[in-house]
Every structure is written in C-alpha cells, then in structure tokens.
Design goal:
The chain is an alpha+beta fold and 103 residues long. The N and C termini lie far apart (41 Å). The chain has a domain of 62 residues: Nucleotide-binding domain of ferredoxin-NADP reductase (FNR) module (Rossmann fold). Strands 1-2 form a two-stranded parallel ribbon. InterPro entries: FNR_nucleotide-bd, OxRdtase_FAD/NAD-bd.
C-alpha cells in the first residue's frame, strides 16, 4: 500500500525548461518507492523525468540520464530530464565528479 502524502514544494528552477508549463499552486504527481524490483524509466520515453538522489544513490539515476543521452544519439525524441543530486561531503560522496568534468 502506498501512503497518501500531500504537501507543498517550492520550485526554485526552470532549468532546461522542464518546469515551464507549471505555475505556483499547480499539482505535480510523484511516486516515492523503496527499492522496487520494477525500478525503471517510464515506458513512454517522451515523458519528462525529474530525479532526486544522494550519495551512492546517484549510480542508477546517472544510468537513466546516460540511457536518455544514447536514445537522443539514436535520433529518438525523448522527454527532458532533470537530475538533482546532493551530498554531505563532496570529497567522499561526489563519486562521478571527475567523470562529469571530463565529459
């Protein structure tokens, strides 16, 4: 059973235009799941995605972004993707820092 969670969130960015169609007070559907077996991107690749993660939880999310990049290279039209990543100690938790700078 999934709990019904309601609350307010302040949107502080419109990076990549992913939030352009939203206005203050609009509702956004979210799915919060614990390590689900069926953890995957939406079947419809044109759906935009917003991802939040921290620490080593970045690894599968980074894979989702890389998959979208490969789909774009293959000429497919995919939805926009936005990744929010946070960590407490950049020296220990920012695992892909050098990869991303080089990329």
């Amino acid at each position: 059973m999934t709990p019904d969670i309601k609350g307010n969130i302040d949107i502080c960015t419109t990076r990549e235009g992913i939030l352009e169609d939203f206005s203050p007070g609009d509702s956004v559907s979210l799915a919060i799941r614990r390590n689900a077996v069926n953890f995957h991107l939406p079947a419809d690749i044109s759906n935009p995605i917003v991802i939040f993660c921290a620490g080593s939880g970045l690894a599968p999310m980074r894979g989702f972004i890389q998959e979208r990049a490969e789909q774009i290279k293959a000429g497919k039209k995919v939805g926009k993707a936005l990744l929010f990543f946070g960590c407490r100690d950049p020296e220990r938790d920012f695992l892909y820092y050098h990869d991303e700078l080089a990329g």
